[in-house]
Design goal:
With about 180 residues, the chain is α+β, with helices and mostly antiparallel strands. Helices cover about 20% and strands about 40% of the residues. The strands form 2 sheets. A 7-stranded antiparallel β-sheet has the order 3-4-5-9-8-7-6, with helices on both faces. The longest helix has 15 residues. The radius of gyration is 16 Å and the shape is globular. The N and C termini lie far apart (about 35 Å).
Length: about 180
């Protein structure tokens, strides 16, 4: 199944839509734009940030209480290159989500670290989703994966913000 992080304290009094600025952990930092809020991490992730005040016009997405979010998780490359690693991730998604369509695979550099990204479109519980996954090489065999999940209908609206978030990802390496 597709884990949708549980949304907590979306209506926390007074702080709705206030920029958090930056999420900083022992291992990395990443920007949190206005209207996005960090929440309890989804299972298997180090950090999860939701678009707290999102207004959806998609009944299927509303029904499952979906909110656009991004998550950062840590993995080991097991001596794979970034390209082989993202290929393995795509294979896993392919098995989990029938009909998933991949696009836009590319190499990039994020704060001096080699990274590889891909996008995917899929339908789940009647809603049309789009994801962007960015795998960033860390020290040694470390891989950090930033995954963005939104509705296809919101992708154009969020594309720039999602790019800015991904490009802000900075590892605190003790190499």
């Amino acid at each position: 199944g597709h884990e949708v992080p549980e949304v907590r304290s979306v209506d926390a009094a007074g702080d709705r839509g206030q920029p958090e600025g930056k999420l900083v952990t022992d291992n990395f930092e990443i920007i949190v734009p206005a209207g996005w809020r960090s929440t309890a991490p989804a299972i298997g992730s180090s950090a999860t940030v939701i678009k707290a005040d999102e207004q959806l016009d998609d009944p299927a997405a509303e029904k499952i209480n979906f909110r656009s979010y991004f998550a950062v998780s840590y993995d080991l490359a097991q001596e794979k290159t970034l390209s082989e690693y993202t290929e393995a991730v795509r294979d896993q998604l392919w098995q989990l989500i029938p009909g998933i369509v991949f696009a836009g695979e590319r190499d990039l550099v994020i704060n001096g670290r080699a990274a590889r990204a891909f996008e995917a479109d899929f339908v789940q519980q009647g809603a049309d989703f789009k994801i962007l996954m960015v795998a960033v090489g860390g020290s040694g065999d470390d891989v950090w994966v930033i995954s963005f999940n939104t509705l296809q209908s919101l992708w154009d609206e969020y594309r720039e913000t999602i790019s800015e978030i991904a490009e802000s990802f900075k590892l605190k390496l003790r190499e």
